[in-house]
Design brief:
Elements (H helix, E strand, L loop, with lengths): L1 E6 L6 E6 L2 E7 L1 H4 L9 H11 L8 E4 L7 H10 L4 H14 L2 H9 L9 E4 L2 H10 L6 E11 L2 E9 L2 E9 L4 H11 L8 H7 L8 H4 L3 E3 L5 E3 L6 H4 L3 E2 L6 E2 L5 H7 L11 H29 L3 E5 L6 H5 L1 H4 L4 E3 L9 H13 L19 H10 L5 E2 L2 H13 L4 E4 L13 E5 L6 H10 L8 E5 L3 H4 L11 E4 L17 E7 L5 H14 L3 E6 L10 H10 L4 E4 L2 E4 L3
Parallel strand pairs: 1-4, 4-5, 6-13, 13-14, 16-22, 18-20
Antiparallel strand pairs: 1-2, 2-3, 6-7, 7-8, 9-10, 11-12, 15-23, 16-17, 17-21, 18-21, 19-20, 22-23
Helix pairs in contact: 6-15, 17-20
């Protein structure tokens, strides 16, 4: 039995394919289209999934999509009739709904087959149920409290529940227009970061400020006695005017959603390129603190209701790694699991597993503990890409590569590391990474000068051998997908300044040999030479999606000042 799972006509468009209880591939459309957060129909991802499974679309048994136009239909009609004034937003929403409803005909046209030959039944799985399934059904937990929290999907921003075996019981939902994700997006726009997905910039800016304005944000988000929340609609436009969004044919965009009332209360909104003042930094710190307060409010009520020690998280707000790192301190949960793609891309996997487990009542699959579920390329394809660009290379074994890479890092070099299948999700986790020496005070400047060219307030991340996490961090928990920020031990901060943020924290990845042996062994070699079991890890890209195919890695190397490129077992350097 083959299940094709889709996130379509939405940001972070993606596809996955299961054969019975095995995930064959999960990948994001942006990796093929080379446009961040690509929205629309994930045609290239679907083709890659079918190729990996060695089948065509007519052999797929079930197709799931993580959208259900019928969900919350009464609330949608009621809200539209009573509040929405902006006709363009209604037209956009209706057009999007029609596309979601015509998946089979789109597949037939794009894959050049007769629609009648596609035997698969189409399942529309509600957005937040897909999020919940993407976390719980891929987790190692038999039972867990489950939280999905993001901007909006199917007219809902938040959903709580409890997972047991192959079933998730849904408890409560927060309905449009109330949303923590929308609050964070609106404030991201207010601070002058207007691109879709820029929320991480506010999170990176927050440690430079003091959360002295939390009282102002308590007027924006009201925590309710039932463990949920409401927003003060006066601060936003979306509840009255709707929001004009572009969800297809490239980069998704959202019009500003903060109102003049927010400007009246907080001051003039920063424009892109304006100076980031201390006031802006203090506001960012306050918004982050208010977001954490709301998340822990929800979680503590959920924990009390379920009595669970395990927690599964998903959704855009669940990507707030600063809040995630505090969950062991601020709640009674003892273990927290997030999938590698807790973003909307992961709903492709979640929708497929909602069908497989929740509807069909099949036994749970093995936990998905690796992010490497994307594309892999053969030796022939690697050599062809190198020769096509007239790039000199040598082949080395894994042991030699560990020595070459670590020596380069110790000498102050920057290395592109391309090994195995590409990651699914927003993080580079040792398959498509750029590496540097975390001990160097100037590593951030070197990376931004040679490659990244990004805002100086944004931190770089440490990949640390899992058996040494407790030596460097004040918490010692599993962080396989770089999904949590922990406080670095004070006595260790001067040792690894390149990955220590201004507040003494680091967004770490704990690296396991059984999951990624080549990456682990390279870091272990660095440890043997330096007595530091950590490398600086950032995504292999230059203001673009993370590289996918070998040609993209080579091109990124050639147009930047990267010192070395490791392309599987091929070594490319600037030294003859």
């Amino acid at each position: 039995m083959y299940i094709l799972g889709l996130n379509a006509f939405h940001g972070d468009s993606a596809a996955c394919i299961f054969k019975d209880n095995k995930l064959i591939m999960a990948t994001e459309e942006e990796r093929f289209r080379r446009i961040k957060h690509w929205a629309g129909f994930p045609l290239e991802s679907i083709k890659a999934c079918l190729k990996a499974a060695n089948i065509n679309i007519t052999e797929v048994d079930h197709i799931t999509i993580s959208r259900n136009p019928s969900a919350n239909l009464f609330n949608k009609i009621k809200h539209t009739v009573s509040k929405v004034r902006k006709i363009s937003s209604l037209i956009d929403r209706l057009a999007n709904t029609r596309k979601v409803s015509s998946i089979k005909s789109i597949l037939a046209k794009e894959l050049n087959v007769d629609e009648s030959s596609i035997k698969a039944e189409i399942y529309n799985i509600e957005h937040h149920r897909s999020h919940m399934a993407s976390s719980f059904f891929t987790s190692p937990f038999e039972t867990a409290a489950v939280l999905s929290i993001d901007g909006f999907g199917d007219f809902t921003s938040t959903m709580t529940g409890y997972g047991k075996g192959n079933n998730i019981e849904v408890y409560d939902s927060v309905i449009y227009p109330h949303s923590i994700g929308t609050f964070y997006t609106a404030f991201t726009q207010y601070l002058g970061f207007m691109n879709y997905g820029d929320e991480y910039k506010v999170m990176g800016l927050a440690p430079y400020g003091d959360p002295k304005y939390v009282d102002k944000f308590e007027d924006i988000i009201h925590l309710t006695k039932n463990g949920l929340f409401k927003i003060n609609e006066k601060y936003f436009l979306h509840s009255r005017e709707g929001v004009t969004m572009s969800w297809e044919d490239g980069y998704p965009t959202i019009e500003p959603i903060f109102s003049e009332y927010m400007v009246e209360k907080l001051g003039t909104a920063r424009k892109k390129g304006d100076e980031l003042t201390q006031y802006h930094k203090d506001l960012a710190a306050s918004a982050q603190r208010m977001t954490e307060k709301a998340i822990f409010h929800i979680l503590n009520h959920l924990q009390e209701r379920t009595g669970a020690e395990n927690l599964c998280l998903a959704g855009g707000v669940a990507q707030n790694s600063v809040a995630n790192g505090k969950m062991y301190l601020k709640t009674k949960f003892k273990k927290v699991f997030m999938p590698a793609a807790a973003t909307d891309a992961g709903t492709s996997v979640g929708s497929a597993l909602w069908l497989y487990n929740q509807i069909q009542k099949n036994e749970r699959i093995e936990p998905i503990l690796t992010a490497a579920t994307g594309c892999a390329y053969s030796d022939e394809e690697l050599v062809e890409a190198l020769n096509h660009r007239n790039v000199s290379f040598v082949r080395k074994d894994d042991n030699e590569i560990c020595d070459l890479v670590t020596d380069c890092l110790i000498d102050g070099g920057v290395v592109g590391w391309y090994k195995g299948s590409s990651e699914f999700g927003p993080r580079a986790l040792g398959y498509r990474s750029i590496l540097a020496d975390p001990r160097r005070e100037d590593a951030k400047e070197i990376l931004n000068l040679k490659i990244k060219k990004r805002e100086p307030f944004r931190p770089f991340a440490p990949s640390v051998l899992e058996d040494h996490v407790a030596d460097y961090f004040e918490q010692s928990n599993e962080v396989p997908f770089m999904e949590k920020v922990f406080l670095i031990r004070e006595e260790k901060r001067k040792e690894i300044p390149a990955v220590t943020h201004v507040d003494g924290t680091g967004r770490l990845q704990s690296v396991y040999r059984e999951i990624n042996p080549k990456y682990y062994d390279m870091i272990k070699r660095f440890y043997d030479k330096t007595n530091v079991p950590i490398v600086l890890n950032t995504s292999f890209n230059e203001n673009e999606p993370i590289v996918n195919a070998p040609a993209e890695a080579i091109d990124c190397y050639l147009r930047t000042k990267m010192d070395m490129l490791i392309l599987e077992n091929y070594v490319i350097t600037r030294n003859k």
